Amino acid sequence: MKKGRAELVCTGSELLGGKLNLYAPLFAERLAPLGFALGREQSCGDSLEEIADAMKGALKRSGLVLVCGGLGPTFDDLTRQAAAAALRRRLIYSKDCARILAFNYGLKKLPPNFKNQCLLLEGAKPLENSNGTAFGQVIRRGGKMLVLLPGPRQEWEPMFPNFLDEEIRAAFRRPPVSVVKLRAAGLWETQAEKLLRPAMRRFPGLGFTILAGPGTVEFHISGADGGAVAGAAAVCRRLLGKALYGEGETTLAAAAGEKLKAAGKTLACAESCTGGLAAELITDIPGSSDWFLGGAVTYSNTAKSGLLGVRAATLRKHGAVSAQTAREMAAGARRAFGSDYAFSTTGIAGPGGATPGKPVGLVWFGLAAPRGVKVFSRQFRGGRRQVRACAANCVLDELRKILK
Amino acid sequence: MKKGRAELVCTGSELLGGKLNLYAPLFAERLAPLGFALGREQSCGDSLEEIADAMKGALKRSGLVLVCGGLGPTFDDLTRQAAAAALRRRLIYSKDCARILAFNYGLKKLPPNFKNQCLLLEGAKPLENSNGTAFGQVIRRGGKMLVLLPGPRQEWEPMFPNFLDEEIRAAFRRPPVSVVKLRAAGLWETQAEKLLRPAMRRFPGLGFTILAGPGTVEFHISGADGGAVAGAAAVCRRLLGKALYGEGETTLAAAAGEKLKAAGKTLACAESCTGGLAAELITDIPGSSDWFLGGAVTYSNTAKSGLLGVRAATLRKHGAVSAQTAREMAAGARRAFGSDYAFSTTGIAGPGGATPGKPVGLVWFGLAAPRGVKVFSRQFRGGRRQVRACAANCVLDELRKILK
Fold this sequence. Notes:
The structure is a homodimer. By secondary structure, chain A is an alpha/beta fold. Chain A has helices spanning 23-31, 48-61, 79-87, 95-104, 112-115, 153-156, 159-172, 189-202, 226-240, 252-263, 277-283, 301-308, 312-318, 323-337, 384-402; strands at 5-11, 37-44, 64-68, 91-93, 119-121, 125-127, 136-141, 144-149, 178-185, 207-212, 216-223, 244-247, 267-271, 292-298, 341-347, 362-369, 372-379. Helix content of chain A is 40%, strand content 25%. In chain A, the strands form 4 sheets. A 6-stranded mixed beta sheet of chain A has the order 2-1-3-8-7-6, with helices on both faces. At the A-B interface, helix 1, strand 2, helix 2, strand 10 and strand 11 of A face helix 1, strand 2, helix 2, strand 10 and strand 11 of B.
């Protein structure tokens, strides 16, 4: 068994049907500062044998096993029973848990379905749930730790700062894994890999992960040696240069927004092919109303003329997907909203709409600033969603680059 | 071993770091018509022992095991070697594969990194890759089947219709699992569960899954008995009544769009708190330009007045988040874009912005139709993203309900 290896078991038949399991990265992030890396993730249906089998396998391979879900009050919540079977331990009714639940819910007598939630594995330590009725449980055996957690994120997440960080640290005393996340835009995953290879060679003891988004690339540098991680991050920052737009959990829109806010400037936009996506990325940021005045989604030519003042002659002569239209859209948005800066997008997101000389994926952009309007174009690959996402990120990237 | 049980093994260290694994639902959907349900999903890092161990476990429990990823040309592509170790079979260089690759890429001699991709497990059948260089492999042993697939979706997905559907059907001859997906809006997951309980009781042999989205609920009914699935679906449709907005892969925006298109009518919108999200959901639909004219994202009061003609007195007297402003925004959008219908959203997405009597999550909506404007409000729970997503879905749901 490798030291510092953890495993995650997610339960719920819906995870094998239609629901996306979004938990592995969230748990990985929680575990790194505690000195653990995820070695495997398993998703199981709501079956006692299945969950018990997954748990047993995980406990054989790993020092720390987290099981998420199946602690509710209903018939298909079987994680407690599965853990009892896997560890061959009894389930014991906890009067303390019953008292806490009754107090929290202002009940004199617990209804029957709460009683199932007061069953603890023999020797388990209960973890109070600040957002629900299911207790978590920590069970230690032979230098290993099994943790049972409720399924909903808002229920298990607070258990880390409240109890688990301390429990895990005290039990294992592992050095934290340092993680630096660098975010870049305007380069492909393969370009990024090539660019960063020198850093990866120079720090062979560290973990490097490259994650590609639409027009963006994320690098994670991780390792127990915090100095080496910081050193590698410094090298990577230099190698990335202007492509680096931020670190941690930031976004392109947030990077542009911070610059605007610092300069006391405002932004507006005019979108055709991105159809509201760029505005959505901007307004997703709390407080964006401080610097974002609004946007126009002008899907029709009439809207381009009526709201933004794009001339009918421009649309007739050059078409909606053209440098000239992009220019007039950006200038028009800046005028209509009275903002300092404005950008525009007009292109062919597909699958239909291509014309000779204007293939699917072609997008024209305009960037209007106090000193004038700049236009440029890109040819993106992929389906409708990919083209739109790349276009929105591309114009936000150019915007944050022209801002001081 | 349960018949018709399949397992999925996904490889790639990034799946345990920061990348979401989106594959389980996609594979579940591919496998249902072949008579298989996913019994477990495992995500492993790029380690030969780890992948081999996950494969061995899966093959013990299941008749069909799919392994996705790790077939590329580089040092960390170890799935072929792991399968050889797990099955104790040799890897053999395939001249046929080499010939196909050389032909596809117009090469006389294969470069060394292509050679690794010509290694087949003894007795394996190669699956040609129409979008990449990695062959898939099908290995049969003792009534079971192991399938190795390349990681990128655009590479493994076409292998199903091209080869795998036929291979799996011929090997197992299982009756397909029928699946019906019903989509509803305007009710909570718990309400939906209560509403549908009679159908679940009446068809105990079927699988029912309830998936909650922001303001939407999805029901999957599945089973080998197609007649029973159709019968249960009919009962559920009746129980859901007007809450049912579509079936299969449709969305609320698409449901509204189909009605608009059929009636030859057009739509526009004015968004404040949803900040472009509603327009984005609409323009995500290919061909939406036939009936969607555009939208205004009016984050500032000036934009509300300038673009939509909301009166300064209305904003002053009632505030931006009010029935009156929602009404003038919707009417203004209908006028500005010249559309038959228009909707508006104005609310407090949070975390800031609450005022006495106007808590975070309060959203006012307007729906402008040829016969007049209707306004209504909702109080949503959750964080900024959840409030925005619920608000966008809520107004699209009301829109599709008022359309004939």
